[in-house]
Amino acid sequence: MSTQASVTRMEKIVSLCKRRGLIFQSSEIYGGLNGFWDYGPLGAELKRNVKELWWKSMTRLRDDIVGLEATIIMHPQIWKASGHVDTFSDPMSTCRACKKLVRSDQVWEMLETVSWAESLRNLCPEGKPDVDGLLKWAKGKGAKVVPNLALIKDPEAVLANLAARSSEASSTQSVLQILCTSASEGPLSTPCPHCGGELTEPRPFNLMFKTYVGPAATEDDIAYLRPETAQAIFVQFKNVLETSRVKVPFGICQIGKAFRNEVTPRNFTFRSREFEQMELEFFIKPDEVVSAQHGKVASLENDPSPSEPKGDWGWEVWHKYWVEERFRWYASIGLKRSSLEEYWQKPEELAHYARATVDILYKFPFGTQELEGIAARGNFDLSQHQQFSGKSMEYFDQEANSKYVPHVIEPSAGVDRLILALICEAFEEEEVADDKGQKEVRTVLRFSPRVAPIKVGIFPLLKNKPELVKKALEIRDLLRPHMNVFYDDGGAIGRRYRRQDEAGTPFCVTIDFDTIGENGPEKQDTVTLRHRDSMTQERIRICDLLQIIQSQIL
Ligand code: GAP
User: Fold this and answer.
1) Cis (ω within 30 of 0) for the bond into 155?
2) Residue whose CA is at the smallest distance from ligand 1 atom 26
3) Looking at residue 57, which CATH number applies to its domain?
4) Which of these three, 156, 175, 203, is where a domain ends?
5) What is the DSSP letter of 295?
6) Is the pTM of this model over 0.85?
7) How distant is the alpha carbon of residue 285 from its chain centre?
């Protein structure tokens, strides 16, 4: 359950995102569109840096992964083959009273954060109802907030029902359910989180957005906005294989938009309807082939933290390797290990084709939630496309002298969730002394310099001193071909530092009278380099500036 402190922290983060141009509500001037978000100037840079770092770590720094950029709308048969047309759905209920739609499997989670449910929980501690208190609440405060709750509509009958069903009232949740159920017999109701009304039975709701291709717009022209980037990789597997001189084991990765018509988008950008994914499909030999070729399949017992790929690895070791790689990558962009959790899905939670799935979770202020999933998917996807398209997805392995449909390990990350995690991780308010020794709160985003949207703030001490401005512009021109810089000549230096702290800028350079040689030749052509996190300043030579900063941001 979210505490007041974490709710407040999240509100501050959302407000900072808007104030500093990280994230805006989409279509805001028209009232917004639920589940859609835009990235402002700082957010766009941050996102670009994160995607660039992922792409670089996957493709340019490795020999065994190549990239792909496919279309968002693809042949609709792809989604039939992948199972999305038939099974990519969430259970949904409608409130019989207010007609709002809710995700049936998230109602109780939503009720954790709803104030009227909190009042009811407080009146039923450990499942023991305070009948007088409930009656008073039902006739007073409750009637204003949740008019459609059974307890409000007929308090006496529902309280009598509660007494009669006391054997079922073993927990606070079951007491709550009885208070929301008008019938004296039969199954208990689940209340609408918005008005307390009764919800319909869950129905599957397919999450794919539909559109039409071509002007006729008939049923035959239906196509879908892709709900994941992964399928394009599977359907282009053969083309990549034949054109890239890659050999199994190898991967194909892609970054791109995905769309899901989520029933209840929420928690800021965490669950959006339009979002971006960074997905890798890493194709490996089936274990039987590894075993035939090497006489054995390596086990995790001998190498529990695999880091250097070897020929005798089967799916289990490759899967663990990718889990570890992903943790290493998150550390490299500034997510502390202690802010992350590793969750191994239980056998009953696994998709029918998955052999193992590990979720990497981040401790968001609103709860510990999934950032990335790393699934061992067997050869399900390639086999499905082979069957549905009639085209062979087999690979001839010269080393093993055998033909097979490769298996796959899939690390699949959401860009937007990662951006939100990085902002949550970086956000800090700390008490510091201002120039006059007065205490003030400094808001700072402690982004890793590698992802920070602006790398350096460049400040001439005074804007009306042409020599200072000229030098500052020279430094801006020296640095900006290599990184995003921000030139700021407005206001006191302290204020300028604070503005950059809020934007997460790791370095600020001030051009002062020493720089232009007014205090003697030894300090000429030096500047102060101020560090965001420690707020310390050092004097360095302009000719060393580029190298010093570049070594921190690459
Ligand atoms: N190809 C596998 C796949 O798409 P997924 O767990 O459904 O797996 C992978 O999605 C990642 O995409 C998630 O871990 C999450 O980071 C991101 N993601 C999924 N749905 C999202 C949504 N509605 N809003 C934002 N990110 C989402």
Assistant:
1) no
2) 414
3) 3.30.930.10
4) 203
5) S
6) yes
7) 31
Q: For residue 463, give the nearest of 512, 394, 529 by alpha carbon.
A: 512
Residues 396 and 496 in one domain: no
* Binding pocket residue ranges, ligand 1, CB within 6 Å: 228, 230, 260, 262, 271-272, 275, 277, 279, 370-373, 410, 412-414, 416-417
SS3 207: coil
Read off the DSSP letter of residue 220. G
**Identity (one letter) of the amino acid at 435?**
D
Indicate the top mutation candidate among 234, 275, 359 to test ligand 1's pocket, ranked by most ligand atoms within 8 A of CB: 275
229 within domain boundaries = yes
Residues 296 and 389 in one domain: yes
pLDDT band at 126 (very low <50, low <70, confident <90, very high): confident
My answer on whether 43 and 141 are in the same domain is no
Same structural domain, 40 and 65:
yes
pLDDT tens-place string over residues 190-249: 899 999 998 999 999 999 999 999 999 999 999 999 999 999 999 999 999 999 989 999
Q: Phi/psi at 382 (nearest 5 deg)?
A: -65, -40
Last-in-domain residue among 177, 203, 229: 203
Asked whether residue 256 falls in the same domain as residue 284, the answer is yes
What was the pLDDT predicted at 90? Answer: 92
Report how far residue 34's alpha carbon sits from residue 27's, in angstroms, rounded to the nearest whole number: 10
Statement to judge: residues 278 and 389 lie in one domain: yes
Rounded CA-CA distance 384/387 in Å is: 5
Atom 7 of ligand 1: nearest residue by CA position: 228
pLDDT digits (tens, 9 = 90+) for 202-219: 999 999 999 999 999 999
Pocket test for ligand 1, best of 79, 358, 417, 422 (most atoms within 8 A of CB): 417
Best mutation site among 54, 88, 269, 370 for ligand 1, i.e. most ligand atoms within 8 A of its Cβ?
A: 370
User: How far is the centre of ligand 1, averaged over its atoms, from the C-alpha of 278 (Å)?
Assistant: 9
What are the DSSP calls for 345-375, one per residue? PPGGGS-TT-SEEEEEEEEETTEEEEEEEEE
**Considering only CA atoms, which residue is closest to atom 14 of ligand 1?**
372
- Give the span between the Cα atoms of 475 and 52, in whole angstroms: 25
* One-letter amino acid of 539: R
CATH number of residue 465's parent domain: 3.40.50.800
Q: Are residues 195 and 214 in the same domain?
A: no
Which residue of 228, 281, 415 sits with most ligand 1 atoms within 8 Å of its CB, as the best mutation to test the pocket?
228
> Which is nearest to 409 in space by CA: 301, 326, 310, 292?
326
Give the atom of ligand 1 at the shortest distance from the alpha carbon of 412. 9
Question: Rounded mean pLDDT of the chain?
Answer: 94
Atom of ligand 1 nearest to the CA of 265: 23
Which residue segment(s) compose the domain that 50 sits in? 3-88+209-423
| Residue 273 Cα: closest atom of ligand 1 | 23
